[in-house]
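Write out this protein's structure.
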Amino acid sequence: SRLFGSLEYLARYPYGCTEQTISSFLPDVVIAQMLRDLGLRNLRLEKQLPDMVAKGLNRIYRFQLNDGGWAWCEFGNADPWMTAYVCYGLIKAREAGFTVNETILKNGVSALAALTPKVRDSAVQVYCCYVLALAGKDVTGRLDLILSSDPNSCTLALLTLSYVKLGQMDKARA
């Protein structure tokens, strides 16, 4: 009962800017997948979540900029971290079985690929690379550069996940 109350709270998180929208949409996706994977039953959530996910997707789609990226707010310039976060959410929604507009995702991934080389912060850059790897892009060269820059623990964790996703287990183990 307490678990479902927490899940319902997350599922009803209010929408706002791009970050708030994806931060509410992503838990909806995770909740839906968790209910399925763990065999938990909550008829009300099971009925409401598909509509909530669809509304979140549509809002995210409307926020996409002409260059394919996303800004922190509805208007502005594409931000690498926010573009990566939205692409991550779309990829996770697709993995959870929701229908995602593949053109919007493809344009987002293309924008992310163009933005990533301009990122100076290694933590943001490795997150962008991780999402690109999830999208099926080979970012090995950029990952190797980040690895050679004496990364911190968080960056190492994302590097490892990225190498695993790319099937480079020797680098992941190292």
